[in-house]
């Protein structure tokens, strides 16, 4: 995608000084029983890994899984991602109908992975990626195995200097083309034509009005429809739709290095399904969480001083309750009598939840890596459901917006125009 974007601007990543480095392995997975597993683009390594757990027939099934995920990717790019779906009739295009069932949108990633992998361990290894869609693998459409395909077929790449290096490059390209960037200019509302069918500009919080031929909104969809655009029946209903999860994300500076960690590390919960149910059905922090640990210094030494590591830790959790929505529904005020029926993590509980998350992470790293990390953390910053909402206007602190299940995408999602 980045290569295409820069090519569309008649340049390239390398021409703009952006250097990409490949992560190898893609991930290290750490299981509760001390076992580890690496995922890689190296076919020989994957053959050895798969056969270790499922014997020689397992590798043939792995290739079949990749083949299906490849079809999910190619069909999605050609027939979905590069198309618009303004109405239900769009789903009835012959080109879509021909591939719809092959995309497995009505089966979960877990169900599809279970066709090819016979061990619980490998099923977990090839389904945890649904977290990147803010969904449980037991609910996410099978189509989304395309994410695993892109990583296993093409690898995971990192821009030296972090992803801001790509943004900085785009800014430079824009400035060469005459673009003027106005930062620290919050938008209060989008102005529209009398019919409200066309955006005509924006009004800033300062009171300044700017006219425009085209207005591009990159804000959270629920927030944009309710806080920036004129209210409609659609915007008011968005708060009742299922959303993605939130996260508690820690950013730790250490006074040492952790050689047991690679660039991308996944620590999977012992009670895998239950941990996802806690997040997506009960909207809380699992007592036995899965989480992701990124160590950017493995790929980019400039990310931390020599002899020290920087860690980015993402722990998925439930979002805030409905009353924190930009589009609250009448049911928002209904009382919760059973904690397991909670509709989100109350803001007043966050200090305890954050402390519990931090303790769980340190305990798991101690158990599985044999290191007590707490004394080595010399600085911490974090994001939680409340800060995600405050900083980025993410409705209920849901980090990926509305859920990406079948009935929240394509023609079922509020239109872009």
Plain-language structure description:
By secondary structure, this protein is of the alpha+beta class. Helix content is 33%, strand content 15%. The chain has twelve helices and twelve strands. β6 (199-204) and β7 form a beta hairpin. α2 packs across α6 (146-154). The longest helix has 39 residues, at 43-81.
Care to give the gist of this entry?
The chain is α+β, with helices and mostly antiparallel strands and about 425 residues long. It has helices at about 1-10, 45-80, 95-100, 110-115, 120-125, 145-155, 165-175, 220-230, 235, 270-280, 350-370, 385-390, and strands spanning about 20-25, 25-30, 35-40, 155-160, 185-190, 200-205, 210, 245-255, 265, 290-295, 310-315, 375-385. The model is unreliable at about 330-340 (pLDDT under 50).
Described by strand count, sense and barrel closure, the largest sheet is: 7 strands, mixed
Structural class: alpha+beta
Which spans of ≥5 residues are poorly predicted at pLDDT below 50? 330-341
Rough shape? globular
Strand content: 15-25%
What portion of residues is helical?
25-40%
Q: Total number of helical segments?
A: 12
Give the topology string: H per helix, E per strand: HEEEHHHHHEHEEEHHEEHEEHEH
Radius of gyration: 23 Å
**Strand arrangement, largest sheet?**
3-2-9-10-11-8-12
- How many extended strands? 12
Please give the alpha-carbon distance between the first and last residues: 22 Å
Please state the average pLDDT score: 91
Which key terms come to mind for this protein?
single chain; 417 residues; alpha+beta; 3-stranded antiparallel sheet; 12 helices
């Amino acid at each position: 995608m980045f290569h295409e974007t820069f090519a569309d601007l008649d340049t390239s990543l390398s021409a703009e000084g952006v250097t990409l480095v490949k992560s190898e392995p893609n991930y290290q997975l750490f299981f509760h029983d001390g076992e580890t597993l690496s995922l890689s683009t190296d076919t020989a390594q994957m053959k050895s890994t798969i056969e270790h757990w499922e014997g020689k027939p397992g590798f043939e099934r792995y290739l079949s899984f990749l083949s299906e995920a490849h079809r999910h990717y190619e069909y999605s790019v050609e027939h979905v991602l590069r198309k618009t779906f303004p109405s239900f009739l769009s789903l009835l295009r012959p080109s879509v109908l021909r591939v719809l069932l092959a995309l497995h949108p009505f089966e979960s990633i877990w169900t599809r992975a279970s066709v090819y992998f016979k061990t619980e361990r490998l099923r977990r290894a090839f389904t945890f990626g649904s977290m990147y869609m803010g969904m449980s693998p037991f609910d996410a459409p099978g189509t989304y195995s395309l994410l695993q395909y892109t990583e296993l077929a093409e690898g995971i790449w990192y821009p030296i200097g972090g992803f801001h290096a790509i943004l900085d490059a785009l800014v430079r390209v824009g400035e060469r083309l005459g673009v003027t960037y106005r930062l620290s200019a919050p938008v209060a509302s989008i102005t529209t034509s009398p019919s409200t069918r066309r955006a005509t500009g924006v009004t800033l919080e300062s009171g300044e009005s700017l006219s425009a031929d085209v207005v591009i909104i990159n804000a959270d969809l629920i927030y944009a429809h309710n806080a920036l655009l004129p209210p409609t029946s659609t915007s008011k209903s968005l708060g009742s739709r299922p959303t993605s999860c939130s996260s508690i994300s820690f950013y730790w500076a250490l006074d040492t290095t952790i050689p047991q960690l690679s660039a991308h590390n996944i620590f999977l919960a012992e009670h895998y399904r239950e941990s996802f149910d806690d997040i997506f059905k009960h909207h809380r922090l699992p007592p036995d969480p899965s989480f992701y640990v990124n160590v950017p210094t493995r790929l980019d030494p400039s990310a931390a001083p020599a002899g020290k590591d920087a860690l980015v830790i993402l722990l998925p959790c439930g979002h805030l309750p409905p009353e924190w929505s930009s589009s609250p529904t009448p049911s928002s005020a209904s009382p919760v009598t059973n904690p397991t029926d909670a509709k989100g993590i109350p803001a007043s509980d966050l200090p305890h939840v954050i402390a519990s998350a931090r303790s769980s992470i340190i305990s798991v790293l101690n158990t599985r890596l044999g290191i007590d990390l707490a004394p080595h953390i010399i600085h911490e910053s974090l994001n939680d459901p409340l800060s995600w909402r405050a900083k980025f206007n993410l409705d209920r602190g849901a980090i990926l917006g509305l859920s990406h299940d079948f009935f929240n995408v394509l023609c079922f999602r509020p239109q872009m125009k």
